[in-house]
Amino acid sequence: MSILRRPFLVWVPLAMRFSLGLVLFVGCDTPSAISVSRDSEAATTPDGSLRQLGAASDRNQLGDVVRIRLEYCQVTDHALRKLLAFPQLESLKITSCPRIGGKGLVPLKDLPTLQTLSLTFCPRIRDDSLRLLQNLEHLTNLSLDGCAGITDAGLLHLESLSQLRTLSLRDTWVTYDRMVDFQKKRPRCQIRHTWTAEEQVEGSHRRQQTAEFYRQLGTSSAQRGRPSAAFSALDTVVRLLPFDARAYNDRGYARKLQDKIDLAIKDYTAAIRIHPNFALAYFNRAVAYRDQGNTKKAERDFTKAKLLGYDKPAP
Predict the structure, then answer these.
(1) Which of 53, 131, 263, 312, CA to CA, is 20 to 30 A from 71?
(2) Strand pairing of 56-59 and 20-26?
(3) Shortest CA distance to 257 belongs to which of 214, 218, 222, 217?
(4) Per-residue pLDDT averaged across 153-168, rounded?
(5) 121: which residues sit within 8 A by CB, 6+ positions away?
(6) Closest Cα partner for 163 from 135, 184, 144?
(7) Structure confidence by residue, pLDDT tens digits, 112-121
(8) Domain of 78: which CATH number?
(9) What is the distance, to the nearest Å, from the Cα of residue 156 to the centroid of all Cα atoms in its chain?
(10) What's this model's pTM, rounded to 2 decimal places?
(11) Are residues 144 and 209 both part of a single domain?
(12) DSSP bridge pairs for 166
């Protein structure tokens, strides 16, 4: 740790098994009583709330905030309570904000004018989160693109939204048959489930960036001796990137930390199937086989890993 002149910068290295991250924390002197007073006052105003959220907004002719956009923010569920300062809100678009989960949707029930809601690439939004939207009687447009926690079961909570006209479900786990069934019950609702070429590029970028946040969260949790938290984060990466070999390898490591050796081996094997020359996955599977007492398979995988260039001594 090094401390420079005030304000100070503290660099904290995160040693990770699969990647090395560097986190920058910014700090400063204890603010004066005047600064505290000003900050508190700003936080209680609508404009102050927008600044704290890091949000972009649009206003109507009366000066009311009617549209809010949050992109690539580390905003939490609790912070979204600041949305209650905008009772005339008509459109809320949240994109790639990985810390937002179901509890973050609770304040929305008190925004009766909300017509457009976009929750794209927010993997903590799950099926049961959608029941919190049932009271949005004026909701006409809903996007859940890239929400890897949404499955067929989640659509049940949306069937009561009688004003819904567009529902976007691209890159979710909702099946085509369930979409057809939903549209029969809501024939005036158009469902989007495929990307245009341009949207595919942008969607891929957002998905990768969100997955990287969870990858770093998972590996840092593993280093801190928190295997359950590590698994939760790395399982989210697999949901976001279901054909990514590294994602399965990382989740396998988290499962090994939980002493779930059989499941760890399955993940390492999945990684190898996707990327047959993935030396680290062979090495990790060898360690898991050895811990199982299967020395023959362990030696085979250790040898394969070495042939592929991973010659680290077995732990």
Answers:
(1) 131
(2) unpaired
(3) 222
(4) 94
(5) 95, 96, 98, 145, 146, 147, 171, 203, 206, 207, 210, 240
(6) 135
(7) 899 999 999 8
(8) 3.80.10.10
(9) 23
(10) 0.66
(11) no
(12) 141, 190
